[in-house]
Write a structure and sequence with these properties.
InterPro entries: Ribosomal_Su5_D2-typ_SF (IPR020568), Ribosomal_uS5 (IPR000851), Ribosomal_uS5_bac-type (IPR005712), Ribosomal_uS5_C (IPR005324), Ribosomal_uS5_N (IPR013810), Ribosomal_uS5_N_CS (IPR018192), Ribsml_uS5_D2-typ_fold_subgr (IPR014721). By secondary structure, this protein is α+β, with helices and mostly antiparallel strands. It contains 5 helices and 8 strands, in the order H-E-E-E-H-E-E-E-E-H-E-H-H. Helix 3 packs across helix 4.
Length: 178
């Protein structure tokens, strides 16, 4: 009887350790931490706002924003927000995007184009961080309009949401791929 319990507990431990291998490893990259203040009756209340991009470098990416009284809690809350806002995007064999795409958020506009293999990520600021964390290796991107880091990150997410594959387009048009 006692040996059966030991076997069951050992199996549970093994199943727990094996489940950790199946979970995707997420990479978190901090875009910016701002010190913000709120004017109240008793004076100014200081807090911190964190903007974090989270992804698995294999086609999943999300942007999270959160405020807290200290930097560590703001980062943790932003990371949790990023997990809630994950999107999945199609990546080609050459680790690029399938086609040209634009995204807009607020006054920010982001244009992305696929690039040849080996060219790297040609982008700046928050757009570059979003593309690297998403796992896109060969792309050309340009941000137009405002230089707001949060809006540029969200505009790049909007652009990546608009990506489609050939299979999705053929299904939508009722065509057969040969």
């Amino acid at each position: 009887m006692n040996s059966d319990l030991k076997k069951i507990n050992k199996a549970k431990k093994n199943s727990r350790s094996n489940s950790n291998f199946n979970k995707p490893k997420f990479v978190e990259r901090l875009i910016k931490i701002n010190r913000v203040s709120k004017v109240t009756k008793g004076g100014k209340k200081l807090s911190f706002r964190a903007i974090v991009v989270i992804g698995d470098e294999n086609g999943k990416v999300g942007v999270g924003v959160a405020k807290a009284d200290d930097v560590v809690n703001a980062f943790k809350k932003a990371k949790a927000d990023g997990h809630k806002n994950l999107i999945e995007l199609p990546i080609t064999k050459s680790l690029s995007i399938p086609h040209n795409v634009t995204g807009q958020f607020g006054a920010c506009k982001v244009i992305m184009r696929p690039s040849i293999e080996g060219s790297g990520v040609i982008a700046g600021g928050a757009v570059r961080i979003v593309l690297e964390v998403a796992g896109v290796k060969n792309v050309i991107a340009k941000q137009l309009g405002s230089n707001n880091l949060l809006n540029n990150a969200r505009a790049s997410i909007c652009a990546l949401k608009n990506l489609t594959t050939k299979a999705q387009v053929s299904k939508k048009r009722d065509l057969n791929l040969t």
